[in-house]
Specification:
heterodimer, A: mainly alpha, about 60% helix, B: alpha/beta, Rossmann fold, 6-stranded mixed sheet, 4-stranded antiparallel sheet, about 30% helix, about 20% strand
Chain lengths: ~325, ~450
């Protein structure tokens, strides 16, 4: 049998980047934010990460076995979903709740629609919103108790943030209340929030890696952040107040959302024009939720709403084929 | 305006180093030679010899039948052994003339006789090209005399020689341009004589600076000829990409280059035109690259058309390792074959043997990453076209410009989910053409199947 030649249609060469290498790069890019979250919130954060990742992989595996589908061999997409979900959860969340989020993300938001590539909304975000609506109290419990003089053991268990005694209202809450915020702390990430959203620095390092590996382009993040900034300048009531604008951009889940959630291939438009429209749309929606609305956050809802528009945007921005753009002064 | 490049495409440079510095070797076949009657786009030629006839090298053994067709020329002398169906590089069984080689290589009268093309009339030149059986040697095989006869000669303002050779691994055009650049330039001059308002352009990818240098030297005193260095990018040698890179004019699938004032000929075709018109040598030989990691001594051969690929492989030292895949033509657009018992035709420029089959991978789900769209030189959305094709949604497929696909393979190459985008889109295209009752390859195949059943 080994003497037979393979026969297949052209082309006969393939580029080495595969789905699993892309997913692996996303996981690598999320490592700085995850590590900072663990440093910030203690080992409990690590436990949340492990719980969601495990619940996502197990859910996908069990679903595929039960439905007699082929178990996807190591495309890592379930791990990415689990990791993203964990980074969107507060470290104080009960473990069963985190696990439930993982099951929801994979089962309801992804597998029942046909699995990888067929989901119309970002599974991790869908699960976050599901948990937020179901358990609003636990999902916004960003503050933990203070410890006066921590031992190493306590540092490990509770994280640097709580020990510093910075916990309390999140910067976004402060902004909403009209206070000024410490931008440097927000950039480094010594603030309250979900596990992965606090450190702008860690998120930017991860995103830089993805740009370098050409996994994502800066188009969606830039159009998102810029349009949100313009919205904040016009409607925020603070004009060009740098503290206010930057505080909004660095605060909450905006950077995590813009860099890692809105750039999800499956749930974002394909064409460059479409990506700009998508970015601007979620930027404006985030502005409406955060500044005009009564809530403090709005990134997740905005991106989910944007996800729903993707098929429409793709249809509207479909380019003309080469040589069919327009009839140039008759036939020449 | 020359742009030297186009949107999309991929960088593919591997494999040329295996053969690019080795001079072309002549190969004399020992076995029978096989001449399929269809070695071009259009109607198959009509055999004018029959079993038992003696033929000479350079003799017309099958004549062009219809408007778009081409003569077939015997490349050796010998006896017609049979006219029967044989397997061709296109993967089809095709009526072919089989000639037993007498190893004498006796040529026809006047073979190699010098002619001054400046004194020949336009019709004489076209007649000579037609007589010599020249077709596009880059792989498409469009009969050259048809291409050289547009409705209005004076409307042609560009005559382009395609020296891009953008497919990886293949170096047959490169070696030709290195070893006999004069033939290419002379061939271009002959074509320019047909189109008095045209400017001649020799377009070469910038990964062949030595070739560009040679052409620049040779054309230094020629006001009508310009040598352009194009960006190295696949599929730069595609006709529509090339015309855009050289002139900035865009061409859709329904138009011919002549519609935008261009005539494009491959470098090897230009050399063949020169030999046919100025030297009375019909198209009997071509250069074939034999390469790949399974080949013992990769090399370029000048072989008589009709030679069996197994003789070529043997001449290259055979296989050092058992290959997993044999490709006739380039790795991006060539055909995978299951045997070497097929003849070299006018259109075949390479035999590639790979130890590993890159394409033997499992399809996974599309993750809408958009890579296929960004690499598509024709601005199509392959991921959507594939779904439409698989679902038989032909109307939508046409509406989304699926018929524009040139089959270059960039989408399948780049797809991280290993999806067979090119394959599905090309098949859907063929199916739709067949439905429209357009005489097309797929339609012919379909008829063949129906007849067999």
């Amino acid at each position: 049998m080994s003497d037979l030649y393979n026969v297949s249609a052209a082309p006969h060469l393939r580029y080495p980047t595969k789905t699993n290498t892309i997913m692996r790069d996303v996981i690598i890019a999320l490592i700085p934010a995850s590590l900072f979250g663990i440093y910030n919130f203690g080992l409990r954060a690590l436990l949340v990460i492990l719980t969601t990742v495990l619940s996502c992989t197990v859910t996908e595996y069990v679903y595929c076995r039960l439905m007699k589908k082929q178990v996807n061999p190591w495309d890592y997409s379930d791990i990415v979903t689990g990791l993203l979900l964990a980074l969107n959860l507060p470290a104080s969340i009960p473990m069963w709740m985190a696990a439930l989020g993982g099951v929801f993300a994979i089962l309801i938001a992804k597998m029942v629609f046909g699995g990888l590539g067929q989901n119309f909304i970002n599974p991790a975000l869908a699960a976050r919103v599901f948990l937020f609506i179901s358990f609003p109290g636990r999902m916004s419990a960003f503050a933990l108790e203070k410890i006066a003089s921590p031992t190493t053991k306590e540092l490990l268990r509770h994280g640097a943030l709580v020990i510093d005694g910075v916990s309390g209202a999140t910067p976004l809450g402060q902004i909403k209340a009209g206070e000024t915020v410490n931008l440097m702390k927000m950039f480094i990430g010594n603030i309250g929030g979900t596990i992965g959203e606090t450190s702008a620095l860690a998120l930017l390092i991860g995103a830089a890696y993805l740009f370098y590996r050409k996994v994502i382009t800066p188009i969606i993040p830039l159009s998102y952040i810029l349009s949100f900034a313009v919205f904040a300048i016009i409607f925020g009531g603070h004009g060009f107040d740098a503290n206010y604008i930057l505080g909004h951009i660095l605060g909450g889940g905006l950077l995590l959302g813009a860099l890692f959630m809105a750039t999800d291939y499956v749930t974002s438009p394909i064409t460059l024009k479409g990506q700009v429209i998508f970015g601007v749309f979620i930027g404006i929606m985030t502005g409406i939720f955060r500044i005009i609305g009564t809530g403090v956050e709005g990134v997740s809802y905005s991106i989910l709403l944007g996800n729903l528009l993707v098929p429409l945007i793709d249809n509207l921005t479909r380019p003309k084929a080469f040589g069919k753009e327009r009839v140039k002064n008759g036939k020449k | 305006m020359a742009r030297m490049s186009f949107k999309g495409g991929i960088r593919l440079e591997e494999g040329k180093e295996l053969t690019k510095d080795l001079p072309v070797t002549d190969l004399l076949p020992k076995g029978d030679l096989v001449f399929p009657l269809s070695q071009h786009i259009g109607a198959p030629a009509k055999a004018v010899v029959s079993k038992g006839d003696k033929v000479l090298a350079g003799q017309v053994i099958a004549e062009a039948d219809g408007m778009v067709s081409a003569n077939i020329i015997s490349s050796i002398s010998g006896t017609v052994k049979a006219i029967e169906r044989r397997l061709t590089p296109a993967g089809k069984m095709e009526e072919s003339i089989v000639i037993a080689n007498d190893n004498m290589n006796t040529v026809i009268d006047n073979y190699g006789q010098k002619r001054d093309y400046m004194k020949m009339s336009k019709d004489k030149i076209r007649e000579a090209v037609k007589e010599a059986g020249i077709v596009g040697l880059g792989g498409a095989g469009f009969p050259t005399h048809v291409k050289l006869s547009p409705k209005n000669d004076s409307k042609i303002d560009y005559v382009i020689v395609n020296g891009a050779e953008c497919e990886p691994y293949i170096t047959s055009d490169y070696r030709l341009m290195m070893e006999e650049p004069e033939s290419v330039v002379e061939g271009l001059k002959i074509v320019l004589r047909l189109f008095e308002n045209a400017k001649g352009v020799i377009a070469v990818e910038d990964n062949k600076p030595d070739v560009i240098e040679k052409f620049k030297e040779l054309t230094a005193g020629e006001p009508r000829i310009e040598v352009l260095s194009l960006k190295t990018k696949y599929p730069q040698g595609g006709e529509r990409q090339l015309i855009y890179a050289v002139t900035g004019r865009k061409l859709n699938s329904k138009k011919l280059p002549a519609d935008v004032g261009c005539i494009v000929n491959n470098a090897a075709t230009a050399a063949a035109i020169y030999k046919a018109v100025a030297r009375s040598m019909p198209l009997t030989h071509r250069i074939v690259t034999v390469t790949g990691d399974a080949v013992a001594e990769p090399r370029n051969f000048r072989v008589p058309i009709g030679t069996s690929f197994s003789e070529l492989a043997e001449a290259a030292g055979g296989f050092k390792v058992q290959p997993k895949k044999l490709i006739i033509g380039g790795p991006m657009m060539g055909n995978a074959m299951f045997t070497l018992d097929i003849p070299v035709t006018k259109m075949t420029n390479a035999l590639i043997a790979f130890v590993k089959d890159d394409a033997a991978v499992q399809e996974t789900a599309c993750i809408s990453c958009g890579r296929c769209y960004f690499k598509c030189p024709l601005n199509l959305m392959p991921m959507k076209l594939q779904v439409l094709g698989l679902n038989n949604e032909d109307d939508k497929f046409v509406e989304m410009d699926g018929m524009e696909c040139c089959g270059c393979g960039c989408c399948s190459y780049i797809c991280p989910a290993n999806r067979s985008l090119t394959q599905t889109i090309v098949q859907t295209k063929q199916r739709i053409l067949a439905k429209k009752n357009v005489p097309h390859e797929a339609y012919e195949l379909h008829k063949e199947h129906a007849a067999n059943e």
